[in-house]
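Bumping with the actual sequence this time:
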Amino acid sequence: MPIVAPSLLSANFLNLQQDCEMLNESRADWFHLDVMDGRFVPNISFGFPIIEHVRKATKKICDVHLMIEEPEKYAEAFKKAGADILTVHYEACPHLHRNLQQIKSLGMRAGVALNPHTPVNFLSDILGDIDLVCLMSVNPGFGGQQFIPHTIDKIRALRHMIKDRNLPTLIEIDGGITLQNAAAIVHAGADVLVAGNTVFKSDDPVKTIEALKAL
């Protein structure tokens, strides 16, 4: 049974409280919060005030995904805002080990995200320090994109690396997840499904979450 982490990037920001209440009453496990700076990715999303308000609206895990440059400057502020898991991008962190140590020292779980073009074996030397690997299955920056099929091979390869070392590291898939492809994604070895449009644009988001949990 996968962990389901609906992405609030697809929520209705005029009725954010209503969407948070819906997720609280659903079987969603985590709230996935995408932070974009307009530099690392070609889009700007939201920052600390939104996360602070979401934190007050739920007791569920706040899974914060930083698509930003120089994340080390803001890690403490994201902890204060309410992040339980803080994920940084491999491609944005020339001193990745230092980033992970900083996140853990602040009492959060540490995640690393990989863009579609970045091979999973780039994490080989540091996998033991990572609580969660977020494989981007679309190019980061915008919701509603098509799932990149090659991601299935990356999930299998990463699952093999984790199993070989007997690590508890979770595999999270972010982008283009639908009710049609989610079973194959879980079967390949994914633990966490980030679903944005699939949940929030469906006629019955609670039922859609149920269907993802049932895989």
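The tokens above came from a reply further down the thread. DSSP finds eight helices and eight strands in the chain.
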